[in-house]
Amino acid sequence: MKNKLYVGNLPYSMKEEDLLDFFSEAGAVQSAKVITDMSTGRSKGFGFVEMETDEGAEKAIETINGKELQGRSIRVDLAKEKEKGAPRGGRGGRD
């Protein structure tokens, strides 16, 4: 499945509802998530959008990648799969 998109260079004021609306011009959106800092709640400037179809994802990349939003040029790419079993943070080599 190639319908999950990485969206970078988002304005820090972007809300999930705004992201969903913005991507709906390319097709039906299944979900939209703006990634936030856990301690401050502030946007990290990127997020993920899941389109309902692979075709919708392709159209979103073609029509939205490089488009300007609130003075920022948005980057849209297929999201990379998370590696299963990959180490997550921690204390660097401590057993």
Low-confidence stretches: none
Name the helix and strand elements from N-terminus to C-terminus, one letter apiece: EHEEHEEE
Q: Termini separation (Å)?
A: 37 Å
Mean pLDDT: 89
Please, what is the CATH homologous superfamily?
RRM (RNA recognition motif) domain
Q: What gyration radius follows from the Cα positions, in whole Å?
A: 15 Å
Please give the CATH architecture.
2-Layer Sandwich
Overall spatial form: globular
Instruction: Quickly count the helices.
Output: 2
Annotated CATH topology: Alpha-Beta Plaits
Number of structural units classed as domains: 1
Which CATH class? Alpha Beta
- How much helicity do the residues have? 10-25%
Main pleated-sheet profile:
4 strands, antiparallel
Secondary-structure map:
Layout: E1 4-8, H1 16-23, E2 29-36, E3 43-51, H2 54-64, E4 68-69, E5 72-73, E6 75-78
Antiparallel strand pairs: 1-3, 1-6, 2-3, 4-5
